[in-house]
Design a protein that fits this description.
about 120 residues
Length: about 120
């Protein structure tokens, strides 16, 4: 039977490949609709705590507050799709931010292009 242009076998192969590459997305597809309200409430609670913290951590590390927003939102979205552990905590850390600032402050001005380049080199 062909419903969307793909025969059944390639469609199953595609699903299996996506489930292997993106286990979080495969898990989201099996989520019950009745759990959406609870999941939304949990997501808002986590965002209410982690967004202000990430802005503060970015400033602690010598970056603009916008960098903190990117550092909390993008990794969480990526891990939701590609991660395999439901208990993993993803986000910025105070100790890491303090170490970045202490290491890079003597080398470049905070929030400069050189500072950003050095921080990428340091964390790669």
């Amino acid at each position: 039977m062909v419903s969307d242009g793909l025969p059944e076998r390639p469609r199953n192969l595609l699903r299996a490949t996506l489930a292997r590459l993106m286990p979080g997305a495969a898990e989201l597809l099996h989520d019950r609709r009745t759990d959406f309200g609870v999941d939304l409430q949990a997501g808002v609670s986590v965002a209410a705590v982690s967004l202000p913290i990430s802005v503060a951590y970015a400033q602690l590390a010598g970056f603009s507050p916008v960098v903190g927003l990117y550092s909390v939102v993008l990794p969480m979205l990526a891990y939701a799709l590609f991660g395999s552990s439901g208990q993993m905590i993803v986000g910025p850390d105070a100790a890491t931010c303090a170490m970045i600032a202490a290491t890079l402050s003597p080398l470049a001005l905070p929030d400069s292009e050189a500072y950003r380049a050095l921080s990428v080199s340091l964390t790669s």
